[in-house]
Specification:
The structure holds two protein chains of two kinds.
Chain A lengths: L7 E10 L2 E11 L4 E5 L6 H8 L7 E6 L2 E3 L3 H5 L2 E4 L11 H11 L5 H9 L15 H13 L5 E5 L7 H11 L6 E5 L3 H7 L2 E6 L2 E6 L6 H7 L2
Parallel strand pairs in A: 3-8, 3-9, 6-7, 7-8
Antiparallel strand pairs in A: 1-2, 1-4, 4-5, 9-10
Helix pairs in contact in A: 3-4, 3-5, 5-6
Chain B lengths: L1 H17 L3 H19 L6 H22 L2 H5 L2 H6 L6 H29 L9 H26 L5 H24 L14 H26 L2
Helix pairs in contact in B: 1-6, 2-3, 2-6, 3-6, 3-7, 3-8, 6-7, 7-8, 7-9, 8-9
The chains are: A alpha/beta, B mainly alpha.
Chain lengths: 229, 224
């Protein structure tokens, strides 16, 4: 029997911005369907890691593989299988929510019927006819969730996924981006306790280096405090 | 091609929604004609002078469109969204060049008749077919180089400066060929009915060379 490749495999990953080290020597292996929580203070390298996995940034050293495909060389093969929910919604302000999602559906070769289904899932079908610039941040975030999952990605890269969402909206997006979605997830959060509750594996970054890799239960309060000290 | 059409459709929809680019280009061209009218202190102009005024005005108006071509992609995450899709990245070059070409055509639909009305001595009717041929080739070059330059400039903080500083020198050959091609068409006496083939050929060659160059380097502009 052929062994299924890990969803994500990082070996000695490094990335620099000029002289500044954003990531250095980061290694981790995530099995398919698991959730990796990436923790760390602002500027620790969380977003950089997500952008490398999303094929938007090139690593400067080390190896990165997603579903067994080496990045950035095999980026094209990976893009259809991943969805990114970033700080920015990646939606055009002057287009309506529906126009934005239809644009993304066409880019990904997804049937337009899927747009209506994801809009209904987050209860945005009525407000979807308004330009993005007229919507509240929470509504825009709901549409950004729709965009990220429109093409049914197997890997979700979630950078503060519940930012701007009220508890009701947070519950609405749960089937799409939560554990029950069944997707492999990499998530960052400003609330480490909430991220730990969702995680199967934790990667704690400090100044771009892996300060801890292991199960959430192994990350004690002292280590967590030290991480954010 | 399918991806390029998706992007082009989105760009045209955004322009129709915001009306940020084409109206500004048209207004700029009309004001420039007025400035030339008073600056040259002549009721009408013809021949090479008319061709130069028309070409320079259209070129500077085009710079406004070139500067704004990628602004929505940069400021609203359009680059990232596009790069996340499993599509050929050259589609963005094709779509942006096509959008800029259409913006220039829309500009000229208003600006050329206005030029004929306010500044041009001879009637615009007889030289119009030849002028359309010259301007179409010029627009193609402007669209390709404009897209390339705009793609580079938008990655920098000083994009409003970088666009004209890089674009205008690169466009000088197109400016010369367009003006020299249009000049004989706009004479009051001994006007030519067709543009000189030599200048059309130079414009076509210029378009081809820069289209190939843009195709070769555009993917690298989208890399981090």
């Amino acid at each position: 029997m052929v062994e299924e490749p890990p969803a994500i495999e990082l070996r000695g990953l490094a990335r620099y911005f000029g002289e500044r080290v954003a990531l250095s020597g980061v290694s981790v292996r995530v099995r398919p369907g698991a959730t990796l929580a990436v923790l760390g203070r602002n500027g620790a390298g969380k977003s950089t890691l997500l952008r490398i996995l999303a094929t938007l940034l090139r690593p400067h050293a080390g190896e990165v593989a997603v579903f067994g495909e080496a990045l950035p060389r095999r980026g094209f093969a990976v893009r259809a299988r991943l969805g990114l929910l970033a700080h920015e919604p990646l939606l055009y302000r002057e287009l309506t929510g529906r126009e934005n999602l239809e644009y993304h559906a066409r880019l990904h070769g997804v049937a337009l019927g899927r747009v209506q289904r994801v809009l209904e899932a987050v209860e945005m079908e009525r407000r979807a006819e308004e330009p993005i610039r007229l919507l509240s941040r929470g509504m825009v975030q709901r549409l950004a969730v729709c965009r990220a999952v429109l093409h049914e990605p197997q890997l979700l890269l979630l950078d503060e996924p519940r930012a701007n969402l009220d508890p009701v909206a947070s519950e609405l997006v749960e089937p799409l981006i939560g554990r029950e979605s069944g997707r492999t997830r990499v998530l960052t959060s400003h609330d480490p306790r909430a991220a730990l509750a969702e995680a199967d594996l934790v990667l704690a970054l400090k100044d771009g280096r892996a300060a801890f890799v292991g199960a959430p239960t192994e990350l004690g309060d002292a280590k967590l405090r030290d991480l954010y000290a | 091609m399918r991806t390029a059409l998706i992007l082009l459709r989105k760009d045209l929809r955004l322009e129709l929604r915001t009306m940020e680019t084409v109206p500004a280009m048209i207004l700029f061209a009309l004001v420039t004609f007025v400035i030339f009218h008073f600056g040259l202190n002549r009721a009408t102009i013809d021949g090479q002078l008319a061709a130069g005024v028309l070409t320079a005005t259209l070129l500077f108006a085009a710079m406004l469109g070139i500067n704004r071509l990628f602004v929505a992609e940069r400021e609203q995450g359009g680059f990232d969204a596009f790069l996340l899709a499993p599509v050929d990245r050259s589609a963005m070059l094709l779509a942006k060049a096509a959008a800029l070409f259409l913006f220039l055509a829309a500009l000229e639909v208003i600006a050329v008749p206005a030029f004929g009305l306010f500044l041009l001595g001879p009637s615009l009717g007889p030289p119009l077919p030849g002028l359309i041929a010259v301007l179409a080739l010029a627009d193609l070059g402007l669209a390709v180089i404009g897209t390339l330059v705009s793609g580079i400039a938008v990655q920098t903080r000083a994009r409003d400066l970088i666009g004209p500083m890089m674009g205008l020198p690169l466009l000088i050959p197109a400016l010369i060929a367009t003006a020299r091609g249009a000049g004989p068409l706009l004479r009051t006496v001994h006007a030519s009915s067709a543009p000189p083939g030599k200048w059309l050929a130079i414009l076509a060659l210029y378009d081809l060379v820069f289209a190939l160059l843009a195709y070769a380097v555009f993917d690298f502009l989208l890399e981090d």
